[in-house]
Design goal:
The protein is mainly β and about 375 residues long. Helix content is about 5%, strand content about 25%. It has helices spanning about 10, 70-75, 140, 355-360, 365-370; strands at about 60, 85-90, 90-95, 95-100, 105-110, 120, 145, 155, 160, 180, 185-190, 190-195, 200, 210-215, 220, 225-230, 230-235, 240, 255-260, 270, 275-280, 285-290, 300-305, 310, 335. The strands form three sheets. The chain has a ten-stranded parallel sheet with strand order 1-2-5-8-11-14-17-20-23-25. α2 links the parallel β1 and β2. The longest helix is centred in the first third of the chain and has 6 residues, at about 70-75.
């Protein structure tokens, strides 16, 4: 079988992004990670500037030196306490960024409104050696961006990890996280998440925290378990795209979702009115597999996918698989409701557990997010 050449996301960093990929519109290939090279006479758009500061707690970031800081981490370090806003001018921010738990209520805004313009990207993987020589970074340590704080909001930004397996074919630690989100009340509007394995890590700070997260009109791409973690996460009107695996000759190439919901948590990952497309051959991807981590063998992964279009890239006959035989997917909390598309065809009904109409009433954004209503907020 002929397989396309591996896309090099680094090659996209200074290239023009394909129109439509940003917000889940029709896209023929992998999304471009980098900013589009066009002039921006007003780098911060309608959000002010250092000379006309929007609020006393607004900071401006621009890699070309027209803001308060040239790096996102430097701006984060300058904030203390609750309620700071960072406005990111168009540009590629090649760095790792960490938001500590005490920096609550932060908001990051891509100034142009187009997530292709403001890109936070780095290229660490789980197998990357630590600087002090004490081992490798591991999955969590590979994250380009790590958010531990509650109340984090991002709008119109791309979070990416452009590490490629082709660069290190001998490595086994190929997880490369674009963002790890651990706080409660974390919201992402019109953002992109680009990577390959373990792109979007929707997690919590600890087992006892049932962190709520909300993703609206976002675009996520990857191959293996590229949306995963134990958060109570709602994905509304989001586009998930599966990539080609030039290093493999047969299916499956990977898995879209790998939830690791705590057994005590009644709400895991919820996909509403989404879309799953693929650049891979038909049937080469599974919709999900359960992740029961060694650190929490009582986990009962939960995923509900409803009113979502599943493209032909999803294996309709067997859309779910085991990560470990000791934890079969049939024992977990996987359900579907009124999905459409060739990847949703119920050719083997026992492989497609469905919600009844009455059960579906408990799987809504309102039920999952409770008194937190990020879908009503526009700034």
């Amino acid at each position: 079988m002929h397989r396309p050449a591996a896309p090099s996301r680094r090659g996209f960093l200074l290239a023009t992004a394909g129109a439509g990929a940003a917000l889940g519109l029709a896209a023929a290939g992998p999304a471009a990670a980098g900013a589009r090279p066009r002039p921006h006479p007003r780098p911060f758009g309608r959000y002010g500037s250092p000379a006309a500061r929007r609020t006393p707690k607004t900071l401006y970031v621009d890699p070309h030196g027209r803001g308060d800081f040239t790096s996102v981490q430097a701006a984060v370090d300058a904030t203390e306490g609750d309620g700071w806003t960072l406005v990111l001018a168009p540009g590629t921010y090649r760095e790792t960024v960490s938001v500590d738990a005490d920096r609550t209520g932060a908001t990051w805004i891509g100034a142009s409104g187009d997530p292709r313009d403001a890109v936070v990207v780095y290229d660490n993987a789980a197998g990357t050696p630590k600087p002090d020589g004490s081992g490798t970074l591991g999955t969590s340590g590979s994250a380009t961006t790590t958010v531990r704080a509650d109340g984090f909001t991002a709008r119109g930004i791309t979070f990416a990890n452009d590490w490629l397996r082709a660069d290190r074919p001998d490595w086994t630690g190929t997880q490369a996280v674009a963002i790890k989100v651990m706080g409660d009340r974390s919201a992402f509007h019109d953002c992109r998440f680009l990577g390959h394995q373990d792109t979007l890590y929707a997690d919590t700070r600890d087992l006892g925290l049932f962190a709520r997260q909300y993703y609206a009109r976002c675009y996520v791409e990857g191959d293996v378990d590229f949306v995963f973690g134990r958060a109570s996460a709602v994905y509304e009107d989001c586009h998930f795209r599966t990539l080609v695996r030039p290093d493999l000759d047969a299916a499956p190439y990977g898995f879209v979702f790998a939830p690791s919901t705590a057994g005590a948590n009644p709400r895991g990952h919820l996909v509403v009115r989404g879309r799953v497309s693929s650049e891979a051959p038909d049937g080469y991807y599974k919709l999900a597999r359960p992740w029961v981590p060694s650190s929490d063998t009582t986990a009962r992964p939960m995923l509900t996918v409803r009113e979502t279009h599943l493209g032909a890239g999803i294996d309709a006959v067997a859309p779910y698989a085991n990560m470990r035989d000791a934890h079969p997917w049939q024992d977990q909390r996987f359900r579907e409701f009124r999905n459409t598309g060739p990847g949703a065809a119920s050719t083997v009904p026992e492989n497609r557990p469905q919600l009844s109409r009455a059960e579906a009433a408990a799987h809504t954004r309102e039920a999952y997010l409770g008194d937190w209503r990020p879908y009503d907020r526009r700034r």
